Amino acid sequence: MAPNVVSIPAGVDPVELVRRHEPVIRFTEGELFFPMAVDAYVEGAALWRRTAGQADRERLVDHGELTVDALCTRARSGVGTALELRYVPSALSPGELRLWRRDPDRARFRSTTRFAAVGLLGRVIDSLFRLSLILRGSVPGGLTAALHRRYRGSAAAAEFPYYAHVSTDGGYVVLQYWFFYAMNDWRSSFGGVNDHEADWEQVTVFLVPAVDDSGQARRPDGTDVLRVGWVAFSSHDETGDDLRRRYDDPDITWVDDTHPVVYAGAGSHSGAYLPGEYLVRVEPPVLQRFFAAVSRAGGVLFPWTRDRPAPGVGIPYVDYKRGDGMQIGPGTPHSWTPILIDADTPWVRDFSGLWGLDTEDPFGGERAPAGPRYERNGTIRPSWADPVGWAGLQKVPATTAEYYRAVDDRLAELERQRAALTAELVANDAIQRQLNVTVTASFPLVATRRGATGAVRALREQEAASSDLRAARRAVVIEQQHLSRARHEPPPLAGVHAHLRRRALPNVDADRPPGLLLRFWTEVSLSALLALTGGALVFGTISSIRVAVSAVLIVMAVEAVLRRKVGVFLLGVGVLASIAGIVFLLVTDLRTATGVLLLLAALALLIANVRAYLGRR
Questions:
Q1: Most CB atoms within 10 A, among 11, 64, 72, 599?
Q2: What is d(CA 363, CA 195) in angstroms, rounded to the nearest whole number?
Q3: Which helix or strand (DSSP H or E) is residue 172 part of?
Q4: What is the pLDDT of residues 370-403, one digit of tens each?
Q5: Which residues touch 340 (CB under 8 Å, ≥6 apart)?
């Protein structure tokens, strides 16, 4: 078999393989939507065609008249991504919505006040972001209720399928479990970022050959020929290396050693490895530069906060992944129905449209998704076409044999580099000798002549190039030495979290919720700020700048008292006041301002020198 190629072992049934490693999903209490069958959704949906840039849509097939085969036929007719499915005709009316909310059988949710976990700036930006929904395309109010009422009343709510895509790539056997939901109601039901009709989420399990010390498969019947190497859950915040976890990561909970446990986000359905509540700070693309500038400014003005996450930057949301609700999978009262799909499955291959309402939201958050194979623009998803690269595993050898093969390949490449560097050095040294002859023969009689000075300059350039080449060759030799030793040693096993740039952990303490006064204040503080500013401008005579500054200071002072951070608040105010005073002096009295800056520089230098002196004792 060619290097870096693996296939499903003979005699291994793909259905048994996906059943052996199917995940367990634990939802949050209050979740309204669970995985459902594509067939049931399509057969109850209407098919619409939209035209880019136009508000009007054409209904091609009405509710109850569509089938999966008919959907594929329509999709092949050339309209492609211009199609969208709609599971309900419209949102509920205000009266129907009130009845739905009063329904005693509807699941209830206990939330955390997200604003209590972030600063004033985050709350201001959040308000602007919510107001932008008026101008952006967004899912209409009452649609979640309409979808839930229809979903809960259908037979599809009693069955829980997943769609398994089995593939091989980069030495791994890849099991992708796709889950389809009728709705993502994170915003309307759980105070999250967005809503969108229909939702696709996935769990990916990367299998590697399971071998014993002799290098042979443990059991000839195929049941243990493959074992879990890595798992990756779809997530809003992670990409690449941060998506995946190794099989021995203590953050992963396993059922019967082969079934990973996924803690699904309430409404969002994205996966987490640990149960809890996650504070998510969303940065819309149009505001990313602003957020970066705010973070840099905060680090300069308040150096003691550089190593801490900025609490006021970003739009704050809580992603509830408590795992205290319904559970589906092995060891639970609810079992999965496995359905295998691949690139030749008709609805996977042919339908590249959207599975719900296209709001044409420019941020994309309120638009329905495309299917497991496609992005919204009709291109193929990286996670479908290149799951190994999507999870950052293209650089990780799947087996010990592949590791040693990579070592040998790297050693061969290093030898080629060393030979090339040596040849370049030989040529460079010859040129240096030639130039040196010119320089020594010309000086001192014709030192100022063009030929001699040009030779001096060229000689210096060649010497600098030679120094760089010799340093590069030394680095190659050192790497060769390390890899030569590694060729005769067991592969090193890095820490389970060594590959992570950011390890996602629950960071909202649900057992110690904010105090009642703080929760109340964070909900009304922005209104209080606007009221103070507006009232002072209407009834006062002072300048608008002083009004705004005073209002912000009052609101922040109250918040500092409630958060028990009065000292930090006063220190911050002192720093800002000092900076403002120096700027004022620079404008009005340059001499005094220069003197103040010199005094501050002297004090800072004295403190630094004393600390260095004490550190040497």
A1: 72
A2: 12
A3: strand 172-184
A4: 999 999 888 999 999 999 999 999 999 988 889 9
A5: 14, 15, 18, 163, 164, 165, 166
Q: What angle do CA 233, 235, 237 make, to 5 degrees?
A: 140
Q: How far is CA 479 from CA 206, 418, 465, 467, 476, in A?
A: 30, 11, 21, 19, 5
SS3 434: helix
Tokens for 354, please give them: 């959207």
End-to-end CA distance of the chain: 65
Q: Are 306 and 312 in contact (CB under 8 A)?
A: no
pLDDT tens track for 210-241:
865 444 555 545 456 889 999 999 887 788 99
Nearest to 180 by CA among 371, 387, 378, 380: 371
Nearest to 194 by CA among 335, 309, 328, 357: 357
Amino acid at 137: G
What SS3 class is residue 184? Answer: strand
H/E element holding 280? Answer: strand 276-282
Q: Which is more confidently placed, 459 or 273? A: 273
Residue 219 and residue 572: Cα distance in Å, rounded? 66
Pairing of strands 327-328, 196-209: unpaired
Distances from the Cα of 413 to the Cα of 80, 397, 476, angstroms: 46, 17, 10
Beta-bridge partner residues of 405 = none
Task: Round to whole Å and give the CA distance between 156 and 184.
Answer: 17
Query: Could you give the angle at which helices 450-486 and 400-442 cross, rounded to 10 degrees?
Result: 160
Contacts of 326 (CB under 8 A, 6+ apart): 26, 27, 31, 34, 334
The model's pTM is: 0.79
CA angle at residue 360 from 280 to 94, to 5 degrees? 80
CB 450 within 8 Å of CB 438? no
78: burial class by Cβ within 10 Å (0-12, 13-18, 19+)?
Answer: exposed
Tokens of 555: 């609101």
Token pair belonging to 409: 């390949």
CA 357 centroid distance within chain: 24
Peptide bond into 444 cis (omega under 30): yes
Three-class DSSP labels, 569-595: HHHHHHHHHHHHHHHHHHHHCHHHHHH
